[in-house]
UniProtKB/TrEMBL annotation:
It is found in: Membrane. The keyword Metal-binding does not apply. InterPro entries: Aquaporin-like, Aquaporin_transptr, MIP, MIP_CS. GO terms for cellular component: membrane. PANTHER family: AQUAPORIN OR AQUAGLYCEROPORIN RELATED. GO terms for molecular function: channel activity. Keywords: Membrane, Transmembrane, Transmembrane helix, Transport. This is Major intrinsic protein. It comes from Arabidopsis thaliana x Arabidopsis arenosa.
Length: 223
């Protein structure tokens, strides 16, 4: 239904858009649909690829900047490159999976949409399980293909920079996650004129890149 086809009741309410009805919390009928399993598979594959590429990028950065291994500060993609690796992967994967699963690729996004009654409990739990399994498999592939570098650089894990405590790190993660989920809700808001397009959904790469740029430079450093 377009804006010109709104009912008289909706016109009197002042709305020029339609809010989708809330999804039932327990929608077990989804388990009988192939589209549901296709969406779960899409979340698994997307999260696997996301972790595989981004963890490899971080390990590569550590390897190239390792002075003991003959590296230097100017020999790597830099922190900006890491940020854009995360953002670029989100852009590609969300664009590819938005029409299949909604392109969540993050349990925080799925949980937020569940609280807003955008997805059912069955779908939310299935997505989060698939995402966690995909992330585990993605990192597992990194360890299999680059075991030497993986073990040498701690799997690409970071630690807090000097002068920052755990509370600051947790706060940074909370703020970054809020910005990501807020962007998801804004991009999929029915009041958007382009709500039927996947282009605004793909703009998740900008907050993702900025979040990583801010948190890596201010709160974290390679371990």
């Amino acid at each position: 239904m377009t804006k010109d086809e709104l009912t008289e009741e909706e016109s009197l309410s002042g709305k020029d858009y339609l809010d989708p009805p809330p999804v039932k919390t327990f929608e077990v009928r989804e388990l009988k649909k192939w589209s549901f399993y296709r969406a779960v598979i899409a979340e698994f594959i997307a999260t696997l690829l996301f972790l595989y590429v981004t963890v490899l990028t971080v390990i590569g950065f550590k390897s190239q900047t390792d002075i003991n291994a003959g590296g230097g500060a100017c020999a790597s993609v830099g922190l900006l490159g890491i940020s854009w690796a995360f953002g670029g992967m989100i852009f590609i994967l969300v664009y590819c999976t938005a029409g299949i699963s909604g392109g969540h690729i993050n349990p925080a996004v799925t949980f937020g949409l569940f609280l807003a009654s955008k997805v059912s409990l069955v779908r939310a739990v299935s997505y989060m399980v698939a995402q966690c399994l995909g992330a585990t498999c993605g990192v597992g592939l990194v360890k299999v293909f680059q075991s030497t570098y993986y073990n040498r650089y701690g799997g690409g894990a970071n630690m807090l920079s000097d002068g920052y405590n755990v509370g600051v790190g947790v706060g940074a993660e909370i703020i970054g996650t809020f910005v990501l989920v807020y962007t998801v809700f804004s991009a999929t808001d029915p009041k958007r004129n382009a709500r039927d397009s996947h282009i605004p959904v793909s703009n998740f790469n900008y907050p993702t890149s900025l979040n990583h740029m801010n948190n890596i430079k201010k709160y974290q450093k390679p371990s």
